[in-house]
Amino acid sequence: MDIRQLEVFVKVFETNSFSRAAQELGISQPTVSTHIQNLEDTLGKKLFDRLGRRIVPTEEAKLLYRHAVEILKKREEALAELFSSSRKTLGTVRIATSNIPGDYLIPGILKELNELLPETLFYVEILDSNKVINAMRSSVPKYDLGLVGVFPSDDRFEVKELVEDEIVLVAPPSYEKEEIDLKELQKLPLLFREEDSGTRKTIEDALREVNLYLADLKIVAYLGSNTAIKEAVKKGVGFGLVSRCSVEEEVKLGLLKVVNINELKINRKFFALRRKDLTPSQAVKTLWENLEGLVKAYLS
């Protein structure tokens, strides 16, 4: 059994197709079939049942997949450490984060992270909160830590509260009012985040507390990030409900204006999570122990 066989096996398992696996790997379908056949012969186990044009992984394949992903991940980490052109690294930390931590918190503490772990390479990928949580639920997650704006209710996670945030209504600076009531909010053209966003879930929960629902609002667009909402507000498209920490710079520069909403205050927290059942590297342990303090020091 060699690494290439495992790469091909993992791709076939994930795509449920020999032809798609071949296409994504840039090799021929017969070559894929040969790799899988050789792997089955080596293991003495059948890995896929062929049902017409469909293939179905066996229980043995599901077991092998978990270990194969981990082996390939370790290989990638080893290569990153060995061939880093900029510095010698003694480990990698992979972080999946929702938009606000990824766009503002991580960049804000990256200098301190490099000082804390000078020989560690950080990989940060920005996803929606639900996608971060689902990625961390994988049998062999490719991320070491997750940062999200909703509490991840799963016994497999160790969860740490990082910081509290407020979601505020932002308007173009030319908007005259400093505060509005709920009836006025319903008349404004609003820009909202997409369905899987932690920001949107927090807003919907807060609206329900005052007996308001999305159907009661005048939503003109759903956008994929706080940055997109801010840019649209600057151009006069509408008003946005966004994280306060994401607009502090624009408010200081007079590019955006925060408008208070009477009877509606939207607070939420950001959380870090990691898997309880997986042994972390020393770099991940060190980051986990110091992350809350670094974030709070940055925001203080």
The SS-based structural class is alpha/beta
Low-pLDDT runs of 5+ residues are 85-89
The number of domains is 3
CATH architectural category of the largest domain: 3-Layer(aba) Sandwich
Number of strands: 12
Q: Using the coordinates shown, work out and report the CATH topology of the largest domain.
A: D-Maltodextrin-Binding Protein, domain 2
Distance between the termini: 53 Å
N-to-C SSE string, H for helix and E for strand: HHHEEHEHEHEEEHEHEHEHEEH
Which keywords apply here?
D-Maltodextrin-Binding Protein, domain 2; Arc Repressor Mutant, subunit A; alpha/beta; 46% helix; two-stranded antiparallel ribbon; 300 residues
Structure description:
The chain contains eleven helices and twelve strands. By secondary structure, it is of the alpha/beta class. Strands 3, 4, 5, 6, 7, 8, 9, 10, 11 and 12 form a ten-stranded mixed sheet that branches. Strand 1 and strand 2 (54-57) form a beta hairpin. The longest helix is centred in the first third of the chain and has 25 residues, at 59-83. The radius of gyration is 24 Å and the shape is elongated. Mean pLDDT is 89; it is low at 85-89.
Brief account:
With 300 residues, the chain is of the alpha/beta class. The chain has 11 helices and 12 strands. The model is unreliable at 85-89 (pLDDT under 50).
Secondary structure blueprint with pairings:
Layout: H1 3-15, H2 18-25, H3 29-43, E1 48-51, E2 54-57, H4 59-83, E3 92-97, H5 99-116, E4 121-126, H6 129-137, E5 145-148, E6 157-171, E7 179-180, H7 182-187, E8 189-193, H8 198-209, E9 218-223, H9 226-234, E10 239-243, H10 248-252, E11 257-261, E12 266-275, H11 282-299
Parallel strand pairs: 3-4, 3-5, 7-11, 8-9, 8-10
Antiparallel strand pairs: 1-2, 5-12, 6-10, 6-11, 6-12
